[in-house]
């Protein structure tokens, strides 16, 4: 006589029995994921090889190339690194900018017929010859037409060009406070609003540019007669800060 022993399975244990078809489906799904991952890795290797060949064929100086691997740089070296600061890249960026301006000019010329009416109305709006209530779709589309036609021109570049030199850009930042931080690392100099003199950063000094073309006019747009106390307080604070800066 033979005896079969049974072991009691704990109540919290979850068992799932798969038949042959289900098991094969799981294996196939796993294999597809593996194949997809391998294909992505192979494509990444192809892309990497293309980039390496392009870099090898470029005119990037060897000392600049070393700085491109930012993960291997020490903290102080990292903040002082300027891997994109060399003449060949600077010339290429300038050529791209000039080409973009030519393309922009060609667009304005080609679209002048539909644009001219909106721009004419925009000028009348600024001169007070056109009331907002007379504009069927509101003034927003007139401003859109204006911003579409007028390209972004850097005041910094214009100021430098008028004084006979061209700045060498080594880092760009949208926040003026970031520019101050970059200046503190010894990366270079930056043009920032005078109000930022209140930010005390060790090693950074501010010099006032008091020539007429170094000032910028700022406007505050708000609803006339707005009873919102916070809005009124903000406008008063902003205007007071501007007057204080101008007096200094």
Structure report:
- It is a single chain.
- With 248 residues, the protein is an all-alpha fold.
- It has nine helices and no strands.
- It is extended, with a radius of gyration of 31 Å.
- The N and C termini lie far apart (108 Å).
- Residues 1-6 have low confidence and may be disordered.
Which key terms come to mind for this protein?
mainly alpha, 9 helices
Structural class, by secondary structure, is mainly alpha
Instruction: Give the beta-strand count.
Output: 0
Shape: extended
- Our count of helices gives 9
Question: Alpha-carbon distance between the termini?
Answer: 108 Å
Tell me the radius of gyration: 31 Å
Q: Approximately how much helix is present in the residues?
A: 40-55%
Helix and strand string, N-terminal first?
Answer: HHHHHHHHH
Question: Secondary-structure map with pairings?
Answer:
Blueprint lengths: L19 H38 L4 H6 L7 H6 L6 H24 L1 H15 L13 H10 L5 H8 L13 H9 L44 H19 L1
Helix pairs in contact: 5-6
Brief summary:
The chain has 9 helices and no strands. The chain has 248 residues and is an all-alpha fold.
């Amino acid at each position: 006589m033979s005896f079969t022993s049974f072991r009691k399975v704990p109540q919290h244990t979850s068992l799932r029995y798969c038949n042959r078809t289900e098991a094969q489906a799981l294996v196939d799904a796993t294999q597809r994921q593996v194949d997809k991952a391998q294909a992505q890795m192979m494509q990444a290797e192809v892309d990497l090889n293309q980039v390496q060949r392009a870099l090898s064929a470029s005119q990037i100086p060897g000392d600049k190339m070393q700085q491109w691997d930012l993960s291997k740089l020490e903290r102080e070296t990292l903040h002082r690194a300027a891997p994109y600061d060399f003449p060949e890249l600077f010339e290429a960026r300038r050529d791209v900018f000039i080409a973009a301006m030519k393309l922009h000019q060609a667009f304005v010329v080609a679209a002048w017929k539909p644009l001219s009416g909106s721009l004419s109305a925009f000028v009348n709006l600024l001169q007070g010859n056109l009331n907002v209530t007379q504009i069927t779709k509101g003034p927003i589309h007139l401003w859109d037409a204006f911003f579409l036609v007028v390209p972004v021109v850097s005041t910094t570049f214009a100021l430098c060009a008028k004084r006979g030199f061209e700045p060498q850009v080594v880092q760009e930042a949208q926040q003026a406070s970031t520019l101050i931080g970059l200046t503190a690392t010894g990366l270079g100099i930056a043009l920032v609003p005078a109000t930022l003199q209140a930010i005390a950063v060790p090693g950074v000094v501010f010099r006032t540019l008091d020539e007429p073309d170094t000032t910028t006019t700022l406007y505050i747009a708000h609803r006339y007669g707005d009873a919102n106390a916070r809005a009124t307080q903000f406008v008063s604070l902003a205007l007071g800060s501007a007057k204080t800066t101008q007096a200094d």
